[in-house]
Amino acid sequence: MDLRQLRYFIALTEHRSFVRAADAMGITQPAFSRSIQGLEHEFGCVLVDRANKDLRPTPEGQVVLQHALRLVQGAAQLSCEVQQMTKLDAGELRFGCGPAPAVNLVPQAVAQFIGAHPKVRTCFEVDNWEKLSRALSREEIEFFVADIRHFEADPNFQTQPLSPRRGLFFCRPGHPLLAKDSLSTNDMFDYPLATTLIPPGVRKLLANLSGKTDFSPSIETEHLPTLLKIVQATDAIGIGPQEAFAEAIAQGELVRLHWRNLPANLESLNARCGIVSRSGYRLSPAARAMIETLISLDRQAGPQALVG
Hints:
By secondary structure, the chain is of the alpha/beta class. The chain has helices at residues 3-15, 18-25, 29-43, 59-84, 105-116, 129-137, 185-188, 200-210, 224-233, 242-250, 285-301; strands spanning 92-97, 121-126, 143-147, 157-161, 167-171, 193-195, 219-220, 237-241, 255-257, 273-278. Keywords: DNA-binding, Transcription, Transcription regulation. This is LysR family transcriptional regulator.
């Protein structure tokens, strides 16, 4: 048994085809099949159900797959760390970020990082905190930058706060609400709400405002330009980070909404932005350098203004 065989087995479970998996790994199908058979011989059991057209792993195959993923990822991380130990002139960095920090902070940090370390391959995904936490747990990324409220009390995660990101409500010019002299939060729920994935505390606040036991937005997307276009084309009310929509508001493409009876705990609508990593996990030199860059840029920018 070797890492090559484990990589082939992982590819087989992903592609569910000997032909496609062999092609993805760059070897002939007979050689690929012999490698899988050799792995089965090594363990003394069948790892894939060949009678099933989807080639699903057997129970033994599931166990092998779980360990194979950890071993292959560990080997890749080991190789990456050794290459990066001195000059950060090789290797790869993978991390994630939420929609709010993806507007300014993360692009600025990546630009500065690749300027200092151009030979490090830098990959980051933009998604909501829920999906990013799953990617972190699967070791697909080393850390992510997003709202940290859901992770601060969890011993499995380590959090480092950054400046909060201001949240606001907005709509299109000509929206029916703009004809009113004063807006109540009751008016808000007469229209669809469009937002990114919101933390449980914000959901509870909106549920309380709506008089319901729970709240789910009518439209949910992590792609802020799409959110902007939906609000511009409909009567939906948008909720999102100010830094993403300030320019459109300044140019008259969107209008910020103010509610006369917002509750005192409105600050929960602001994103408590921070860095989330796994407890007890040693970050690679590239990850540590990127985090230092993020923190430095965040401090230079100063605290983000909060909704008042």
